[in-house]
């Protein structure tokens, strides 16, 4: 896939991923956007471990939801 996606696009997706948070969106919408950005960002090439992805996802959730997720770990 990497050979067909411009580097500037993957860089932009990585920036958006770094800034992503749930805000006022639903968990489903946040999850969909998160997965899209991970898939197309340059970090998807292996630079970000699974644990780092999980942490980024959790810390991007609204506080009350992130807390509930943390309690389940």
UniProtKB/TrEMBL annotation:
Superkingdom per UniProt: Eukaryota
Entry protein name: Retrotransposon gag domain-containing protein
Domain named Retrotransposon gag: residues: 3-62
Pfam families per the UniProt record, alphabetical: Retrotrans_gag
InterPro entries in the cross-refs: Retrotrans_gag_dom
């Amino acid at each position: 896939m990497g050979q067909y996606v411009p580097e500037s696009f993957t860089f932009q997706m990585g920036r958006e991923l770094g800034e992503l948070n749930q805000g006022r969106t639903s968990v489903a919408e946040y999850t969909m956007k998160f997965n899209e950005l991970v898939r197309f960002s340059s970090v998807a090439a292996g630079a970000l471990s699974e644990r780092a992805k999980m942490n980024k996802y959790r810390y991007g959730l609204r506080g009350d939801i992130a807390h509930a997720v943390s309690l389940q770990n």
